[in-house]
Design goal:
- With about 425 residues, the chain is α+β, with helices and mostly antiparallel strands.
- It has one domain: Cytochrome p450 (Orthogonal Bundle), CATH 1.10.630.
- It has 17 helices and ten strands.
- The protein has a five-stranded mixed sheet with strand order 1-2-8-5-3, with helices on both faces. It has a three-stranded antiparallel sheet with strand order 4-10-9. Strands 6-7 form a two-stranded antiparallel ribbon.
- β1 and β2 (about 50-55) form a beta hairpin.
- The termini are far apart.
- Bound molecules: protoporphyrin IX containing FE.
C-alpha cells in the first residue's frame, strides 16, 4: 500500500467528506466538489486510503493513460472482505474478477470487449427500442391514474434491470430470484457494510454467480436472440476466441454494470429536471431536445460520481507527488462541473452545445460499454414521462436520502405528483 503520510500530502480535512459524500444533499455535495476543484484538486482521503482527483483535465488524462494507471482495482471491495466471506465465495465457486473491467491483462480485456460489444451495436439497440418503449408505457399505466407515485420504487429502480433481462435472455419466470440476489451487490463492493451484512450479501452473490453459470450453459443448449447466445456463437466451441468463463463473467458483470448505474441516473435526471423550473415543460414541448438533454443531465448529475484507477509508477498530478501503487478516486461528477471545460458549468442547460463532452461514462479503452443502451433507456423514459405526465412536479416537503456508496449516487425515493 502506498505511504501517504509524508509532508507532501495536501491538507485533507476541508474536502475529507468526499469519502462520505452520500451523507450530503445535492447542493452541499456540489459545493464540496467546487471547493475540492478550486483548492484541493488532488487530495488524500485517509479513511478509505484513496487519492481524490477532481479537475476535468486531470481526470481525463488519467483515464486516457493506461501505461501509468491501471483499472485493476475497479471492483475491489472498499471494505476488505473478511476471511469468512472469502471462504463463502470460494465454497460457492465464485470466479472473481471480470475480464471486462480488469485491465491487468489488456489483451484479454480487448478480446472479451470486442465480442461483448455485439450486444450494443445500433442493430441491437433498434431491436430493443420498441420493447423498451412498451415496457416503459406499461409501467406508467400502472400508476398514472393515482396522481402521485414514488418513481424510484414503482418505475426507475426496476426498469433498467428488466431491460438487462431482455438483453441477457433471462426468462420471465427467473426474474424475481435474480432481482433478489442483485439487491446488495453495489453495497458489497462500493459501500461500507458491516461484516455481518457483507456475509449475507456474499451468499446472495454466490447464488447469483451459480445462476449465471447455469444460464450460459442453458443458452449453449438452446440459443436465443440475446447477448450470451451471440457470444457463444462467436466462440463456436473455441476457447482461444472466448472461454465459457469469459461469457459467464460477462453476464455476471453486466447486470451489476447496467442496472443501478442506469436506475440512479434516471432518478437523478427526473429530479434535476423537476428542480430546475421550466425544464420538464421544455422537453415536453420540444421532444427533439431530449437526446441532448440526456447528455446534459448525465453531465450535470451523473450516477457514477467517482471511478477508480491505481498508479503503476510514481506520478505527479497537478503538482502533487503520488507514490506507485496508490489508489485514485477520479471524481467524474466534480470534473463535469469544471468551468474550464464547460461554460456556466453549475447550470443545467438542456441545449448545451458540448454537453456530450462529459466524462460520466469514463474515457478511452474502458469507456462504458453500455453507454448506447443507457442513453436509449434514458431518452425513452424522459420522452414517455414528459409526454404522458406533462404537469409532473415534486411532492413537497420532501427530504432526499441517497444510496450509501462512495462512488454511486441517486435518490432512494422520488415522490412526485401531477
Ligand atoms: C447512466 C448509466 C451508466 C453510467 C453513468 C456508467 C458509467 C460507467 C463508467 C464510469 C465506467 C468506467 C469507464 C472507465 O473506466 O473509463 C463504465 C464501464 C462499464 N460500463 Fe457503464 N455506465 C452506465 C450504464 C451501463 C450499462 C447500461 C451497461 C451494460 C448494460 C454498462 C456496462 C459497462 C461495462 C461492461 C463497463 C466496463 C467497460 C470496460 O472496462 O471495457 N454500463 N460505466
Amino acid at each position: 500500500m502506498a505511504d501517504a503520510s509524508s509532508s507532501s500530502v495536501p491538507h485533507a480535512c476541508p474536502v475529507g467528506m468526499l469519502s462520505d459524500n452520500f451523507k450530503l444533499g445535492n447542493a452541499d455535495l456540489e459545493a464540496l466538489y467546487a471547493s475540492a476543484r478550486n483548492k484541493y484538486p488532488v487530495t488524500y482521503l485517509p479513511d478509505i486510503d484513496f487519492w481524490a482527483v477532481t479537475r476535468f483535465e486531470d481526470v481525463k488524462a488519467i483515464l486516457k493513460d493506461t501505461e501509468r494507471f491501471s483499472c485493476a482495482i475497479a471492483m475491489d471491495p472498499l471494505v476488505p472482505f473478511s476471511d469468512e466471506m472469502v471462504q463463502c465465495l470460494r465454497d460457492g465457486g465464485f470466479a472473481g474478477k471480470s475480464n471486462l473491467v480488469a485491465n491487468a491483462d489488456a489483451e484479454s480485456h480487448d478480446r472479451v470487449r470486442r465480442h461483448a460489444q455485439s450486444g450494443f451495436v445500433p442493430k441491437r439497440m433498434a431491436e430493443l427500442e420498441p420493447r423498451i418503449r412498451t415496457l416503459v408505457d406499461a409501467t406508467i399505466d400502472a400508476f398514472i391514474d393515482r396522481k402521485s407515485v414514488d418513481l424510484v420504487a414503482e418505475m426507475l429502480y426496476e426498469l433498467p434491470a428488466q431491460v438487462l433481462f431482455m438483453l441477457l435472455g433471462i426468462p420471465e419466470a427467473e426474474v424475481s430470484n435474480v432481482k433478489r440476489w442483485a439487491d446488495n451487490r453495489l453495497l458489497l463492493i462500493f459501500g461500507k457494510l458491516t461484516k455481518e451484512k457483507q456475509l449475507e450479501a456474499a451468499h446472495e452473490l454466490v447464488d447469483y454467480w451459480q445462476y449465471c453459470v447455469r444460464h450460459v450453459e442453458s443458452k449453449k443448449a438452446s440459443p436465443g436472440a440475446d447477448l450470451p447466445s451471440d457470444m457463444l456463437a462467436a466462440r463456436n466451441g473455441d476457447d482461444s476466441i472466448l472461454t465459457m468463463m469469459d461469457i459467464t463473467l460477462t453476464v455476471f458483470g453486466l447486470l451489476l454494470a447496467g442496472h443501478e448505474t442506469t436506475s440512479n441516473m434516471s432518478a437523478n435526471a427526473v429530479l434535476a429536471l423537476l428542480e430546475n423550473e421550466g425544464s420538464w415543460q421544455q422537453l415536453q414541448q420540444n421532444p427533439a431536445h431530449i437526446p441532448n438533454a440526456v447528455e446534459e443531465l448525465i453531465r450535470y448529475r451523473p450516477s457514477v460520481v467517482a471511478w477508480r484507477r491505481k498508479t503503476l509508477e510514481a506520478v505527479d498530478i497537478a503538482g502533487v507527488p503520488i507514490p506507485q501503487d496508490s489508489r485514485l478516486l477520479l471524481f467524474l461528477a466534480a470534473a463535469n462541473r469544471d468551468g474550464k471545460k464547460f461554460d456556466d458549468a453549475e447550470i443545467l442547460d438542456l441545449t448545451r452545445k458540448n454537453a456530450r463532452a462529459h466524462i460520466s461514462f469514463g474515457f478511452g479503452a474502458h469507456f462504458c460499454l453500455g453507454a448506447p443502451l443507457a442513453r436509449l433507456e434514458l431518452q425513452i423514459i424522459l420522452e414517455r414521462l414528459t409526454r404522458r405526465i406533462p404537469d409532473m412536479r415534486l411532492q413537497t416537503p420532501q427530504d432526499f436520502s441517497f444510496i450509501k456508496t462512495v462512488q454511486f449516487r441517486g435518490p432512494t425515493a422520488l415522490h412526485v405528483e401531477w
